[in-house]
Amino acid sequence: MGAFKTVLCPIDFSDTSGHAVRYARQIASRHGAQLVIQHVCAPPALPEVAFTLSTSELDRLSEETKAFAHQAGCTDLILNIAIDVGRAADETVGRAAREGIDLLAMGTHGASGFKRLVLGSVTETVLRRVQCPTVTVPPGANEPHTALPFRHILCAIDFNDWSLAALDLAATLAAPSGATVIAFHVIEWPWPDPPAPTFADLPAKQADALQEYRRYVVAQATARLRAAISTVVDERCPVTIEVAHGKPHVELVRVANQRQVELIALGVHG
After folding, report:
1. CA dist., res. 257 & res. 92, Å (int)
2. Arithmetic mean of pLDDT over the chain
3. For 193-217, what is the mean pLDDT?
4. Which of 226, 228, 125, 208 has its CA nearest to residue 168?
């Protein structure tokens, strides 16, 4: 993947989307890309009624969108303001496809009390349908002036095509600042919670066999990671390899906090 030429950032005038604009602006600036700020106006509830914006309303929304982007720090870029009418997810996916967008940046509405990430229905729908890489910015993310340029990017790899595409994206984002990509694979064992017995709790022969098998699986995963890095990254940036055992989402959060990463790259199965 080469440098980004166009970055699309949809907004809804919320603090969350303002946070995403600040990230989009930083990324676009570093890659010399054009930044497209999109606002989608929802039509009336009656689907059979054709709905278009008047010229005055279109001008008003365009100015409001531009002002919102400027307030988020986009005063040094030439912006392309896009006002669309329809369902937010549909219009974002459609514009990304029509304009050949290289990168999409969206805010997410985080939710507390859940072990899984709750993105919000619009972002979740877009992620499942859009064809370009997407950066999701949660409310708790650091401000981009402290998170960019990226120094450490964590890339989760399970060796399918989507995760290798994520590795390619991670290398592209890391290259301008020489950031390190952490190529990370988690080996998930079949037993559910609570944790499996420790080696000391097992019969000696069974413990030895299990330890040997774990070493074999780690060695295989490490070799596959090295092969993926050689093929995909091609010396664009430094890469380290890490293999862990456990639940992927738990281990990703642990390593992200431990290594103080600024970005997590994930492939989406669609």
Report:
1. 31
2. 85
3. 74
4. 228
